[in-house]
Design goal:
- The structure is a single chain.
- By secondary structure, the protein is α+β, with helices and mostly antiparallel strands.
- The protein has a single domain, classed as CNF1/YfiH-like putative cysteine hydrolases (4-Layer Sandwich).
- It is built from eight helices and 15 strands.
- The radius of gyration is 18 Å and the shape is globular.
- The N and C termini lie far apart (36 Å).
Length: 289
């Protein structure tokens, strides 16, 4: 396996890199310790896709072979403990908005075994055991939310727009409305995505965050300004702030130390590769008792 670039900081040891039958994937010990969920974040290693999607790709749109993507999903289902089955996944077409969808038993297989049943949801929540929530990523942030008290989960896709508009906060609020979840009970994880050094943005993005976040911009390392005057957005710290703002205890937030853009040999990255690439995916499910 090629060299991996880690970001050594307080994030060290918050996440693990695992291998199973040639498939490399990331997990968070804090989520495993709940004993309630199965989860992972994929790398691009260990699948059957080829070309620009080689090899563990989850984009049906970019891949030349639906069978290859189906096989990649089946391999993940097996790792998560559900056997080789496309019917347990639930996907959505993401639009960088903050809409949250509650997933029911009737949604089983949406986007894999059957065509997508709904669009424009960047966050999924459920209390149904055995349903595997899926979000797709190529630099944007995956956010895992587990409520061990009410046995409920949420999974978010958060790019700069979702982060600006606090999709993680809205997801936790939706879990509160639907399941009675309280932020202070939730265990959360921020998965592999683009790091601050790689994520240069325009000054207009800084202005939008400053208007929305107010003094938090000065109190949290959400932006980094380089000597040449460029602004870089720290999506990891910004989403950590959003979760804290929602009421999640800081000790209950695990954060990655792996950048998708720094590691295009390990992950698919839009910033590093452009549009000719596959997609990573985040997976989260409540275990069947």
């Amino acid at each position: 396996m090629q060299e991996i670039k880690y970001h050594f900081s307080s994030y060290k040891n918050a996440m693990r890199l695992n291998v199973n039958n040639g498939i490399f994937y990331c997990t968070f010990p804090s989520l495993d310790q709940t004993g309630l969920v199965s989860h992972l974040f994929s790398t691009r290693i260990g699948g059957v896709s080829d070309g620009c999607c080689a090899s563990l790709n989850f984009s049906y749109k970019m891949d030349n072979s639906k069978n290859n993507v189906d096989e990649n999903f089946c391999r993940i289902s097996e790792i998560l403990g559900y056997g080789r089955n496309l019917k347990n996944f639930v996907c959505s077409q993401q639009q960088h908005h903050t809409n949250v969808k509650r997933v029911f038993e009737s949604d089983r297989g949406s986007g894999t075994a059957v065509p997508l049943r709904y669009y424009d949801f960047d966050a999924l929540i459920t209390d149904v055991p055995g349903l595997i929530l899926v979000t797709f990523h190529a630099d944007c942030v995956p956010i895992y939310i587990v409520d061990p008290v009410h046995a409920a989960i949420g999974l978010c896709h958060s790019g700069w727009k979702g982060t600006l508009n606090m999709i993680a906060f809205k997801t936790i609020n939706s879990m509160g409305t639907q399941f009675g979840s309280r932020a202070e009970d939730c265990i959360c994880a921020i998965g592999p995505s683009i790091c601050v050094d790689c994520y240069e943005v325009g000054e207009e993005i800084y202005d939008l965050f400053h208007e929305k976040y107010g003094e938090a911009i000065d109190n949290y390392p959400i932006f980094k300004k380089f000597p040449n005057g460029s602004f870089h957005l720290n999506l990891w710290e910004a989403n950590k702030y959003v979760l804290s703002f929602a009421g999640v205890h800081e000790d209950n937030i695990s954060t990655t130390n792996l950048c998708t853009c720094c590691n295009p040999n390990i992950f698919f990255s839009h910033r590093a590769m452009g549009t000719q690439r596959g997609l990573n995916a985040a997976f989260l499910s409540l275990r069947i008792k």
